[in-house]
Amino acid sequence: MNPRPLKVCYFGTYRAEYSRNRIMIEGLRQAGVEVIECHEALWHGIEDRVQLASGGWRSPKVWARIARTYARVVVRYANVEDHDLVVVGYPGQFDVFLARLLCFVRNKPLAWDVFMSIYLISLERGLDKRSKFTVDMLRRIERAALRTADLLIHDTFEYAKWLASKHGVSPEAFHLVPTGADDRVYRPVAPAAAMQEPRPFRVLYFGTFIPNHGIRYVLEAARYLKKVNVEFELVGEGPEREMALALVREYQLTNVSFKDWLSSAELSVAAARADVVLGAFGTTPQSLMTVQNKIYEGLAMARPVITGDSPAVRDSLRHGEQVYVCARADGLALAQAIDSLREQPELRSKLAEQGHRVFRERYALRPIGVTFRSHLEGLLERRTELGQRREKRPAHPALGGRIARLWRF
User: Fold this and answer.
1) How many Å apart are CA 174 and CA 168, to the nearest integer?
2) pLDDT digit string (tens) for 63-119?
3) Do residues 273 and 191 make contact, with C-beta atoms less than 8 angstroms apart?
4) Largest alpha-carbon pair distance within the chain?
5) What is the model's pTM?
6) From the DSSP assignment, how many helices (H) and strands (E) are in the chain?
7) Alpha-carbon distance 388 to 396, whole Å?
8) Cα dist from 69 to 66, 72, 108, 166, whole Å
């Protein structure tokens, strides 16, 4: 008779629609873990969170909303059936304290998928210029939160190392689960027969037009390639899209087109039409320390991917075999990379094939879930071993009974 599957309570006000949370939850399920979601939405969107970090937290209405939301979370958790452990989803810098208290009551270990530093995000968005006190408070909260969970999860060693040095925690406290991509959504689509005819070399960018992605350098590359038969298609929306449109007018680019967000099916078709897919080329700390979803999504769709070089990228993928890297913040370097792949169809085919293979082996839902599950099982094993050692340790006669009762509770 097989033992029952691992049962996890995914807890908090995490962004349920965000790709990291969807991938982690579905990955666990595909790896045979039963996941119970104990979730309540708190934030209405990115601007809502930015307003809070800019000093909006002082509003009584904000505190009333937070109190109501956490009250609903507590009620939900009280009705959650028995489980092995609790995982706080991203972002969880505030949720982890409530989760710690509830885990103490039910004697459950606590894991937290940190994923990104809200302190670093606030600095990159310049929120310290609006409210230095708020940003410093975020730093202190994040520092305390990292000491609260029994297990910390992150996606790259570089980011975990930064968090450890910034907040004074041990790098060994972090266990890695890569970002990956949702292979139910992003998958290869065979190009239409017409695509075999002579046509421009197509370059696809899709994303949120944020500084991490370095859209300015994509347009600089388009400027260098104005006289070459290369077309750039930019898909998505975000804070730097207006800047991108202005640069197209300034550079008088006729080889760049824009599209709003596409459905996953439409994006897969657009990727199939493209000869290469672009990753990220910014130089913000976030960009340098992560491997963006868009990179894995390009691999998932079996397209050759060009992205900016970084230790995080090289830790995960091999240049010239699974991905093609070039210097960051350098439009000329990106143009040269695009032109190099334009002239080497065999290399493009190799990158597409081997990139897709490594994605299926390491960065699709199931392998991500298996990795995540192994870290959670390791936490349970360590907790069991610790409990056994404590039971063997002789207790103080006066306190032994109370300590034993507290531990059993």
Assistant:
1) 13
2) 788 899 999 999 999 999 999 999 999 999 999 999 999 999 999 999 999 999 999
3) yes
4) 87
5) 0.88
6) 17, 12
7) 17
8) 5, 5, 22, 30
